[in-house]
Structure formats: structure tokens, C-alpha cells
Amino acid sequence: DECGGTIEIWLRKHALNFTRATRHPFILSIRDGSVDIASFKRWLEQDYLFVRAFVAFAASVLIKACKESENGSDMEVLLQGISALSDELAWFKSEAEKWGVSLSGVSPQPANLSYCRFLDSLMSQEVEYTVAITAFWAIETVYQDSFAYCLEVESKTPHELKETCKRWGNAAFGHYCRTLQKMANRQLHKAPGDVIKKTEATFLQVLDKEIDFWNMSHG
Ligand code: HMH
Fold first, then answer.
1. Distance (Å, rounded) from C-alpha 65 to C-alpha 186?
2. Which residue, 143, 128, 106, is CA-closest to 27?
3. CA 184 to chain CA centroid, nearest Å
4. pTM for this structure?
């Protein structure tokens, strides 16, 4: 169920790490309106490169779902997710143009490279679907939770950044993340102990990588 799944238990157990990833000073600065636009532009450039790598990771998760015959509906959810990433790449290009940012000459910062190498390691055939789908859920959920926080009624998010926040903070993306959460929980429910342990460690690694990624915006 919604409250008693492994993911819900981990979210309570690791609440401090999750909060560090979703209430980062960069996100707080967007929410209180004090955000440094140079930081925002650095984040935009780096996240464009990240999303390109994330597409390949998403495709690898889709392949794992296809190979697990009971996961016909998982495959459809992930295929939709990949199709949304196509729109997301187009959005990055138009958003960059709006801010006068050139995406063609951007080189990845160390934290971005490290995150992309981590995604690469999760793409291996030996990595279980349970581990991969939980990492995928965590990566999407950190952005959902962070940007939804910038859209709460009390927030003072600058008008020019509202569209960015809505990209991940909108209700439909929230629903998508909850669907991914159910998929991860279903896998974890039938997984052996060693895979559950490995998945929990991977979840914590995602949170650490997300924190390092936000830190890049400082420059
Ligand atoms: C670093 N994490 C990072 N970038 C993103 N675009 C997402 C998560 C959400 O897809």
C-alpha cells in the first residue's frame, strides 16, 4: 500500500538525506526569490547535458522492464517517460535561448561527469531491474519534490523561473513519480534481501549525486 511500502519506509529512514537533496540552498533561493541568475544559468547548462545522459539510462531501464515479462504496464509508463524526455530536451534548447545561454560549447563539470558515470554503471546488464527502477524513481522524484516546493502558495519564486519549476513541479509529473514509486515498491516486495540492500544503497547514492549536482550552481 501507499504508506507501508519499502520506499515509504526508506523515505522516513533517510528523511535527512532526502531533505538535503530537495531543500538545497539553490532551491531555497529560487523559492525565496533571491536566486542568482548566473547560478540558474550554470544549472541550466549542466542539466541539459545531464538529461542527454539520462535518456540513455531511461532506455536501459525500459529494456530491463521489457525483459521482465510481468511488467507490461511498467514498459508503457517508461516509454511515456522517454517520450517526455524528448520534449524536455527541446524545452532546454528554447529555455537556453531565452536566457542567452549557448548549449553547444558547454563542458560537463566534475559533479555532472561523476553523476553520468554513476548512471553508466547502472546501465550494465548485471544491474537488476529493481535497482534501476528505484534509481530512476529517485532521480525524477528529487526534481519533482524540489520544484513543487518552489510553486507552493507562500513561495516568492520569480516569474521568469515559474515555467522551469512547473516543468517538474506540476501535478501530472507528481502523478508520474507516484506511479514510478509503485513500480519500485512492487519490485522491492518480491526482491531477495541482497537486492533490497543494494537498492537502498543506490537510492542513497542518488541523493548524494543530486546534492553534488545542485552544489555546481554555486560556480
Ligand atoms: C540532476 N536530476 C538531475 N536533473 C534532472 N533533470 C532530473 C534529476 C530530473 O529528470
1. 13
2. 143
3. 14
4. 0.97
Nearest atom in ligand 1 to the alpha carbon of residue 168 is: 9
C-alpha 114/C-alpha 122 separation (Å) is 13
The three cell numbers of residue 64 are 530491463
DSSP string, 174-202: HHHHHHHHHHHHHHHHHS-HHHHHHHHHH
Residue 77 is which amino acid?
Answer: V
Q: Is the ipTM of this complex over 0.90?
A: yes
List residues near ligand 1 (CB under 6 A).
Answer: 47, 50-51, 54, 139-140, 142-143, 210, 213
Query: Do the beta carbons of residue 14 and residue 7 sit within 8 Å?
Result: no
CA distances 210 to 89, 112, 116, Å, are: 19, 9, 11
Residue having the nearest C-alpha atom to atom 9 of ligand 1? 140
pLDDT one-digit tens code per residue, 63-109: 999 998 687 899 999 999 999 999 999 999 999 999 999 999 899 99
Residue with cell 554513476: 118
Q: How many residues are listed for the chain in this entry? A: 219
